[in-house]
Amino acid sequence: MPRFFSNPGQSFSEFHNVNFYVPGEQLSREGRYSLMAEFYREGQIIARRQLGVFQFRRTKDIRLLVVVENGSNREKPMTHEAWTAVQDALEVLGRRFPVRNGVGPLDGFQSNGLRYRINPDPLSVGFDGGSIVEGAAMEQILDEFNERQAVRQRPDRADHILSVRIAQNPSDAGFGNQQGRLASMVYWPNNPGRFPSLVCQEVGHLFGASVLAPSRHSPNLIISDPSAFDLVNRRAIPSPRVFMAGLPPDPADLPDFYASDCMFEVPDWNAVRLALDPGQ
User: Fold this and answer.
1) Which pLDDT does position 203 carry in this prediction?
2) In contact, 278 and 59? CB cutoff 8 Å
3) CB within 8 A of 68, min separation 6: which ones?
4) pTM higher than 0.85, yes or no?
5) What are the phi and psi torsion angles at 166 (to 5°)?
C-alpha cells in the first residue's frame, strides 16, 4: 500500500494518540496484511513499530428496491423532505455497514457498496398499526422486479425491499419492522433525526443484527468505545448510541437517542459482517 496519513494536522498535546484509518480502496486485494508504523523527526526515521497482522475480506454489496406505501387508506403522500430523509438515511447506511464505499443507483457504478432503485408507483401494502401486512405481496414485487432485470439483461438484482411512508398521525410515528426480505419504516416529520437510525436498525435486522436480546433490540443505549470516530466530519464520537436499541423510556430522549452518531455493538457488527461475507 502507498504511505499516507489520514490526519495530517500537527498536534503537540500529550493527550493525543497517533490515529490513522485505512480506506478500503488502499487494499489491492483481500488477504492478510502486516502493518508497520514508521515515526519520523525532521525527515529522519526514529522508530518502527509492528502493529500486527490483519485479515481483510471481500464483502457483498447491499442492493435495495425502495417502494413507498401510499394506498387508498393513506391521505398523506411522501413529501420532498421525506424523500430527502430517505436519501440521507441511505448515505448513513452506506457508511455504517461493512460494505464498499459509495451509494448510487442500481445498474450504475458497480463499485458502489450500496445500490438502490426507487419504485415510482405507490403501493397499497405495508403497515397496519405498526405491523407489516401483505409481506408476501412485497416479496412478489421484489421477485417480479428481478425477473424484469434479467429479461433486460441489467447487471443488478435487488436482494431486499425497503417500504417507506410518511406518518399519518402521531400514533403512526416512527414505526419500523422487518419480515423476510422486507424492511419497512415510517418517516415522522416532527423528528427527522430519528429516521436514519430507524432505517439502519431495520436493515440491520435483515442482516442478522439483534443477537443481544430475545426482544431483537439491544438493552444498551450507549457504546463504551473511546475509539469511535466519524470519518466524514473527522471527529471523535464521545458516546455513540446503539442502532439496535429499543425505544427509550422517555419520549423526550428521542431527538438525542436517534442522533446521527449511532453504531452497531460488536456482536451485531459481527453478525452483519458475516451475513455480508460472500462465502456465507
Assistant:
1) 94
2) yes
3) 77, 78, 119, 122, 123, 163, 164, 165
4) no
5) -85, 145
